[in-house]
Amino acid sequence: MTGVTRRGFVAGTSAAVAAGWLSGAAGTAWAETGAPPDEDGSRLWLRYPPVSDRGLLDAYRRDLQYVVTPDVEGPIGSAAGELSRALGSLLGRDMPIRRKVDGAGPLVLRTAESDAGPESYTLRRGRVDGTAAVIITGGGDRGVLYGAFHLLRLLQTHAPIDRLDLAERPRNPLRLANHWDNFDGSVERGYAGRSVFGFANLPELTERHATYARALASVGLNGTVINNVNANAQFIAPEMLIKLQPLAALLRNWGVSLYLSLNFASPMILGGLATADPFDAGVKDWWRIKITEIYQAVPDLGGFLVKADSEGQPGPISYGRTHADGANLIAEAAAPHGGIVMWRAFVHDFNALEWSNKAYETFKPLDGKFADNAVVQIKNGPIDFQVREPAHPLFGALPNTNAMMELQVTQEYTGQSTHLCYLVPQWQEVYGFDTHADGSGTTVAKIISGQTYGRDLGGVAGVMNFGDDTDWTRHQLAAANTHGYGRLAWNPGLKARDIATEWTRQTYGNDPTAVATITDLLLGSWQTYLDYTNPLGVSFLIKGDHFTPSPQTNTAWHQADAEGTGFDRTVATGNGFTGFYHRPVADRFENLADCPDELLLFLHHVPYGHRLTTGTTVIQHVYDSHFDGAAEVGRMRDRWQGLRGRIDVKRWADTAERFDRHREQATLWRDTIAGYYFAASRVLDERRSWVQVTPTGNAAICLIGGRENQVRLTLANASAAEAELVAGLPERDGWTSGTASLVLPSKGDGTVDVPVTPSLPPQVLTLRPTLRSGDLPALIAEQPVITAPAGGRCLLAVDAGSATSPLLEGYRRLSPADVWADGAPYGWVGGAPQSRDRGIADPLLRDFVNDTRARTLRLTVPAGDHELHLLTGDVHDSFPTTVKLDGKVVAVSEFLLGGSFAWLTISVSGGRTVDLEFSGVPGQHWHLNGLAILV
Ligand code: GCW
What atom of ligand 1 comes closest to residue 189's alpha carbon? Predict the structure, then answer.
């Protein structure tokens, strides 16, 4: 990123921007042999290499010789600039911008009011001032911009333009990007680096901001919420508002409105009020004044997004008010400025049994109570962006309320930036879902667009997958999701294949083999991902990282026992969820015989022998789909290998590496889920035999470093005959281990203890056992492990927690009761913390000391230079813990998902007492589970 001036970006036509985004472009013609020139993915699908088809090039050159624009500022100016630069590059010659028709081949931009609205456009041929012209007519400025990108798409995909005659309008009024970007630049559920916005450097803008805005505009997105719904109130502090102005101006030039996520408790956090009660007059005043101030800074701000009373966020419920009361508080303050509030319906209590029902039960009774400028933002499904869910029952349940849909472009539960999972088919399924709310044909698409209930506000938000990685999405094929999200937001009726093909041509060029292969890879990938991760609609077979398979930690979701599996959400015998749908959907979901196979285990608990409409039993389907799905990933990888030389080497190699990891992970999923279901059901696969090793228990285990431990592994024989199984652990960096064997009858299982001596220094890692049994294939599931140094080899080894919990052997207790006294090895000064014992997991991991307030531990450190190791984590999610040594921050842990732990290491010079201060992020607990200084 270079030091381009801010003004350069704000004027969409600036040469400075152009210089940046065209540099490194494939400016030279592709060689006949060998791969095209290397690219780094930074230009996404906004690449404009010279048109290689000679006939087309001639025709394009004849028809498009210069741009005529009524304006060089604002979105029309951006359109003119983009066309000039892009066509210049595509057609390999200058594409000047003029203010009037003056010679052959004008590309004329203009606006004309249209019934189809200001964002609509037409692309036609006609005559302007007597000259034959290509004409982009926008219903307004944004329309012109969208028309310009449409024309560029045609050229990028080598489409003829001789009979140009098309009219377009967006189906959804709100087409937004939602970023879960934090104030500190980290991105919640972001898998491609840190925030694209560079909050810390604002108001300074870079070329990257301009590319961002262009990317959104190119697919018709018209707004962006730049900060996380888990909102930091600092985003609306006066200093920040000033810093946001240039960003808002840049976005505005590309037709993108800026929106902000709000923290509902802002009146308390920023305003020092004692309450955030929406009925409190002081609170109302505070919001009125604050929102006026926000609009003074950014007069055309789109509005606000709020996550309230959800996953620990503050909200109106604690004051005995409703979500409508909360939303209307903000809506009322925003209304005079033309702003809106998007209020999220994602509420749940982390209770698997209730989760699917909570949002519906909370919001249905509030229908009609929301202000006109409020929109309820509803996730596509009732849970949380699982690989497949039925459409949310709130769609069609709120006829008197503005509603919009939230989709997840970032692949939180769909392989992050490792697995290829093209989500356009998933989104199309939900857009096309017929709710029957207003008779047959009442699709989700029609409801959220506002069409069904005649509402002006509605649309769609997509949680973004962009980060500051050079290629934006780390897995370069994941940018197809960003593009596809936008294209569907514009028109949910587009065909998945057309969208995928368009993106592929724009991104990788028009080589027919490359186009066909990449399009196929994209289109099949969601089904393949479903196959090896999500049997028949089961949710949450995943660890807290939402990436690693872990059926053993989420039994409440799949309910697998010895007889069957699936979550009973029926009215007759389950949690009543199916009753939320309109008929006949409710009946179809309720009755086992009519329930679609792909949602069977989302809606019903069935015996393993239950037959699907295909005639296959549920258990056999689980096996087949996992083996077939993982095998398909191998074929996908091979097909990518076959593209070598057809696309540039750099991008090819980056994605080849992703496919290698994808294949490993798909195999891990296959082994973990098939193994788990065999262990639960004891039903042999009709087509395959294997032996398997699975973790014993459902939590991370703690091993002692520097001495021998026994790791207990559960082995099973999923073959028809008796087999001898030999299990082991890999010898890794200084670890030694042995093996253990077991003879098991067909369908038998048992545990073995495998000896292992980890190296002394503390570690957090995943152990991948080995398993052999003649020629039988082995399914291998992994085991998360924390190692703690042997107490006897430490100068100090401390197990922190309650005053009575069990202690790790060789470790001394640290509890809130240890108050500092002179000469003591350690103790709290100035107040003791709290402690918790979760009662599960081993002595070191199960308990800890914690607090929301900062607390200080004084330690007597023996003479010499030492490394001090501090263990932090919990079986529940834990927020960062900050450690200060003698008043200076020396370590900060990351946000840790439930069941994850981290060792923080700091250097101390001893022969004295030192003060360690532990603190957390405001309102959240810090955690200390243990502490060690090696000899
Ligand atoms: O998908 C879940 C995520 C959380 C997220 C939450 C939400 C922003 O795991 O990280 O928080 O949903 O949508 O609010």
Answer: 10
